[in-house]
Amino acid sequence: TIPKMKNLEGAGPEWLLAFYLGLYTGMRRPDVLLLQWSDVDLEKQIIRQKPRKTARFNKQGLIHIHSRLAEELKRWPRKGADVFPLLAPAQRARGRLQWGFTTILTKCEIEDNEQGRVGFHSLRHTTLTFLQSKGIPASVRKQLSLHGDDAMDALYTHDIKEVRDAIDMLPSYE
Fold first, then answer.
1. pLDDT digit string, tens, across residues 143-167
2. Contact 87, 19 (CB under 8 A)
3. What residues pair up with 64 in beta bridges, in sequence order?
4. What was the pLDDT predicted at 158?
5. Model pTM?
6. What angle do CA 83, 169, 88 make, to 5 degrees?
7. Directed axis angle between helix 160-168 and helix 138-145, to 10°?
8. What CA–CA distances, in Å, run from 31 to 79, 134, 165?
9. Cα–Cα distance between 174 and 166 in angstroms, integer?
10. Per DSSP, what are the bridge partners of residue 40?
């Protein structure tokens, strides 16, 4: 939940921004942590990226950025090609990254729930569930989630403004 996200402020600036990026875009952890500045268009408030999980479909994703998150990214220091220069190498190495993430959740008193283990992917579920609760059509939610199979791909033809409006309905994290 957004109130529990406030507990994450002690996680460090890279993790905090990564959490918000995951929550406000529905992106998966590898796509967030390996995000390159060349994928980000802050003027148009979009991210162009091929999701790693569905890379075999060779589909470029168009991910809309919440206005508040775009402001944060504009202020974010650029230290090389990676948006997250400290977290990206750990994601590439797949070392102790999951352990560190679990430790952060524990310190923030974010616990597993009745659906199971809480992890970074839970942010994706939170985003889509919230949009569903606000009446956003399934077709728009599927476009946002960038599912890669052909059956869902047919649903990716909705008006861009509808997706932008859906993202802007998410509550601000201030």
1. 777 654 444 433 333 355 666 778 8
2. no
3. 46
4. 36
5. 0.74
6. 15
7. 90
8. 18, 26, 23
9. 19
10. 47
Give the whole-angstrom CA distance, residue 71 versus residue 150.
Answer: 34
121-127: long-range contacts, CB 8 A cutoff, minimum separation 24: 121/28, 121/29, 123/19, 123/22, 123/23, 123/26, 124/22, 124/26, 124/27, 124/28, 126/1, 126/23, 127/23, 127/24, 127/25, 127/26, 127/170
Distance from C-alpha of 56 to C-alpha of 44, rounded to nearest angstrom? 27
**Tens-place pLDDT, residues 63-122:** 889 999 999 999 999 999 999 999 898 888 875 566 566 777 776 666 666 555 667 777
The tokens describing 149, both together, are 């199979």
Evaluate whether 7 touches 15 at the Cβ level (below 8 Å). no
Cα separation of 12 and 150, whole Å?
A: 39
Q: Is 36 exposed, middle or buried (0-12, 13-18, 19+ CB in 10 A)?
A: middle
Hey, what amino acid is at 26?
Answer: G
Q: What is the largest CA-CA distance in the chain?
A: 42
User: What is the length of the chain?
Assistant: 174
Cβ atoms 4, 52 nearer than 8 A: no
**Nearest residue to 152 (alpha-carbon basis) of 169, 166, 168, 140:** 140
